[in-house]
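Re-running Sulfurtransferase TusA family protein to confirm reproducibility after the cluster update. Everything else is unchanged from the original entry.
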Amino acid sequence: MEPALLNLTTERCPMALLIAKRAVHALDVGDTLEIHITDTGARQDIPRYLSNHGFFIDVRLDNQLVLEIIVTKRQ
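Result of re-run:
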């Protein structure tokens, strides 16, 4: 099953981080969410926040234009 997509390419930090927090906390254990991020600050802050709060992160794409991650809720 394809993960839901959260497109944050038009958002900047701190709004991108706030939207991501809300989205991942709505997940059930084992659910996945694909997040696309372009803002420089959000590219650092969102993965850091997620890893510090027990989410599994799989980097799908990381280039100069976009960071695409798959987030899985572990607990």
